[in-house]
Amino acid sequence: MTIKDTIYATSQAVSDFTFDAKVVEVFPDMIQRSVPGYATIVSTMGKLAGQFAQNNSNLYDLGCSLGAVTLSMRRTIEKENCTIIAVDNSTAMVERCRLHLDGFRSQVPVEVRLADITEYSIENASVVALNFTLQFIPLEQRHALLSKIYQGLKPGGVLLLSEKFRGENEQTDSLLIDLHHDFKRANGYSELEISQKRTAIENVMRPEPLSMHLHRLSDIGFSQTNVWYQCFNFCSMIAIK
Predict the structure, then answer these.
(1) pLDDT category, 2, cuts 50, 70, 90?
(2) Any binding-site annotation on 61?
(3) Is 116 labelled as part of a ligand binding site?
């Protein structure tokens, strides 16, 4: 049973957003009601992982939260000797992720690691997923993280990157934010919840323009980068080595 997200439903002194036990309890509801097309993104990332997985390789889900992308990838992998490595720095998320994964049988092994993805080694990878994770990494560390991922990918390997992004100018950004807030209202969030959540997250999530993402990926060395999904200020990209 999915527990409804009511974390910001009452007026409160708002502190910076963290992926703690309170968030873990309501995360499935929170993400579905906050991110347009989330189910489509997760299922398609799984399909792409199945398409690009290589024999005798690792697949990484960095910032795995409760393991939605890990599960989606595991359902589609048909290559031999593949291992999924799911990494998150939230103890509460990792503990619940392990429980979720234990509920589904699969021939594809999964290793769930409690670690900082900026310090975790990426090796022999055919697929790396960053599903709304990079936006929580400090700006000054993002290029290094993506470069490390590129170096750890096998030729023909892919990075699957989903992000909330900032509009290219103030007018566009305001339009995208308004559309997203309308989406949240339609999903039952009140004005108080929208306002308090925005306050909680503004210091920990730093979105960048989409053009910045595409330029950085090209600069790092990815040969092909395409946006395959976008709704309002949320998008998902594939970058091929």
Answers:
(1) confident
(2) no
(3) yes
